Amino acid sequence: MNDIKNPAPFYTLKEAAKELNRILKVDYYDSKKLLSMALVYDIKLYIYAQGWDAQYVYQEVMTPEFDEYIKDEDYLTGYSEAHASKEETIQAIVTKTIESLMHGGCLLQLPLQAIKELRLNKICEINSGLNNFQEALYIEDAYSHQVENYTLGVCKIKDSQHPFLRAFLNLYDKRTVESIVDIKIYGVELEKPMEGYSPIPKPSNNTFIDYDDTKYLNHFIHRKEVLITHYQLSRIIEGALVIGIKEQQNTEELMKRNTTRKPQGKSRAKEYAQIAAKTLANFLWNQDKDNQIKIKEMAITVHAELYQTEHREQLPNHSVSLKDWIKDIAPEYAREAGRPKEM
Q: Dihedral (C-alpha) 27, 29, 31, 32: value to the nearest 10 degrees?
């Protein structure tokens, strides 16, 4: 990412596509293609959020000594006073974290369902009680590679000297605060606007949905509001993407089911998938007026596009393996190693 001068913590999809086309010297990426890639690969997309009351799910990690202490306290009653004090303290810290994020503004990871809808339409309406945001970031953390599987704000706290926790020492159970190792907050759900705020994203017109005994307000997301962090953009440029974990598991399950079948040669469905791959690759190479797209890049692009179609189950597990499907129609310049030097 050294090619980006004064990098921002996050970019709109339009801005990200422009940077990708400039750095990779292609004219291929746009907002819809980045949305398509996010459906297939482990790319996280976000929206900016501020001014909402939010529900959440969390999990704390305590020192082994503290866990043993609570276990001993619970031995007779099942739920001791020490346990109740611990829950109250953790709850208070998480609530303050959420309030801090929602007052100051943060990034919320876009649900998969929203990405699917925004690929087809410029605006979608979702309810985060049904499709929650699985990750939230302080804006300054958008640069960091250390936020993979990141939770919220309170992360890897080793002792009570952490500045965020110090404020709680005199307010809540000191022993609990001093024993916190980490607090994982996930499953953020936007419930209703904070009083006196103009919330982002914009809420629907008083459209509430009852879910799990709580009323959640629907909200609108526009394609132009979708963001990608500096870190996620760098992963695309560096070719560090892999197929999403959930889809890999589905593929493995499918392969296991198919192991009991006798080999029958190439199926008609796979033939159609290979024809589709060649047709799409040929079209894109014809549009490549500057002769920039190499076979590997084309394989990744075609794989991402066909993954959204009926050809999905016929595709190879790794996108680069699709090179074998399209190499016989590749133009000569696409077979050369490296990129042409700029004149």
A: 110
118 class by beta-carbon count within 10 Å (0-12 exposed, 13-18 middle, 19+ buried): buried
Q: Rounded to an integer, what is the distance from CA 96 to the centroid of its chain?
A: 24
pLDDT at 159: 43
Look up tokens 């493995």; give the residue: 252
The residue extents of the domains of the chain are 46-225, 248-343
- Residue 101's Cβ-side half-sphere holds a number of Cα atoms within 13 Å equal to 29
Q: How confident is the model at residue 264 (pLDDT cuts 50, 70, 90)?
A: very low
**First CA to last CA across the chain, in angstroms?**
22
- At residue 57, the pLDDT reads 75
Cα 154 from Cα 171, distance rounded (Å): 18
Peptide bond before residue 201 is cis, with ω within 30 degrees of 0? yes
β-pair partners for 61: 182
Task: Note the pLDDT of residue 70.
Answer: 92
Alpha carbons 38 and 200: distance in angstroms, whole number: 22
> Residue 26, SS3?
coil
pLDDT in tens, 282-338: 888 888 888 888 888 888 888 888 877 778 888 887 777 888 898 888 888 887 654
Q: CB burial class (10 A; 0-12, 13-18, 19+) of residue 140?
A: exposed
Helix then strand count (H, E) for the chain reads 13, 10
The per-residue pLDDT for range 164-173, each reduced to its tens digit, is 555 666 677 8
Neighbours of 340 (CB within 10 A): 11
pLDDT at position 169 is 61
What pairs with residue 49 in β-bridges? Answer: 106
Beta bridge partners of 10: 229
